[in-house]
Amino acid sequence: MLAYIDKIKEISNRLLKEGKVDMVIGFRKGTVPMMNEPCFVKTPEDVDNFVWDSNCGINLANYLTNRKEKIGIVAKGCDSRNIVTHVIENKIKRDQLVIIGVPCKGMIDRHKIEAMFETEIQDVIEADDKIIVKGQGLEKTLNKKDVLQDNCALCIHRNPVIHDELVGDPVEEQKDLDRYEDVRKIEFMSPEEKWRYFDDLLSTCIRCYACRNACPLCYCPTCFVDESRPQWVGKSQDPIDTRTFHFLRAYHCAGRCTDCGACERACPMGIKVRTFTRKLEKDCLELFDWEAGLTLEERPPLDTYRPDDPDDFIK
Amino acid sequence: MGIEPGRLHFSWISSAEANKFVDVVNEITAAVKALGPNENFLKTEARVA
Amino acid sequence: MSDWEPKIVSFLCNWCSYGAADLAGVSRMEYPPNIRVIRIPCTGRISPKFILAAFRQGADGVWVSG
Predict the structure, then answer these.
(1) pLDDT (tens digit, 9 = 90+) per residue, C9-26?
(2) Alpha carbon distance A131, A133 (integer Å)
(3) Residue numbers of the domain that contains A96
(4) Do A202 and A288 sit in the same domain of this protein?
(5) In the complex, which subunits touch C with 3 or more CB pairs below 8 angstroms?
(6) What is the DSSP-derived secondary structure letter of residue A31?
């Protein structure tokens, strides 16, 4: 995966020099381990800032909303699906973009790694399928597949669905995964059990809205949580308010969420935010045979009407 | 998500179907009555925001 | 508890169910008084937040009808 870096630099350099794009969005090394940050490069001299490793979990499609300039963007499988969603929703034009596709083998979950050690982690090095974690009096080698983000472990679209350039050969897609085992477990619960389950899940939420801000779908000019007339949801940490926020945010993502995991990655409290979006993802797949962001040709199920749309819930 | 299915209803009634309207109202009222009051969504006095 | 009556917030489409409610009234049909009708221009106007807002403000049930 590290070999991608040179290719990303080379392509970015070329695009910027030829004036095909005004800037390239990619990743640079973060100031703390496992936290690479987005990086907007506007001159060929700066392309050396770019990196690529297993800490590039942020969804870069988030930075495209309503942009006017020509943009080169580094995109993993999930990013590319969110770019498709953005194009479908008229948040950016396809001809503004040069998509630098990166086949991806999953990103590592910093919450998981941090939870394994008591001391502060000072450095994380990657070599093939191993992750070497270093800190004060600490050096440990982990298997990458044991510390993947949950959504990456279940990913079935690792290769970009649209791209203009590709930095490496497509990787093998994961097959025969049972993607919704945990969702089914919740579906089987009684309403009271569900209520308790979600109370528990959200009990640590501090309402920082990091999940919303990290999400490429959450681009409303005014989010419903910030509206005050009418105020749909209170601003406090009251469990009911927290619950309302999470449910409504999830519903806004119905039929659009690509399960990129940005929300969960951003959560400072390590809440499994994807629990909500995944249920809706599963429903869309089962009811409409739809997975978000795979094609530019088709409108999403929730903004089209078909006479055979499922309507069992209507009397 | 923890709301009992009987609390939320959808239906489709044309403006000529007064009979169906009455039937549905009866049905829904019975369903909600059977579930009892909705207390989950109410904030308790102590922590009103 | 025995005299508890549910409050059911009803979002009725102006052109369909609201008309049906009107007709039911004109025809002097009887139905339970538990519904609180909110007339909307079309059920397409409904957003999940209306439904949650109703529950949060103490509705015991919500009914959306087109």
Answers:
(1) 999 999 999 999 999 999
(2) 6
(3) 1-106+155-174
(4) yes
(5) A, B
(6) S
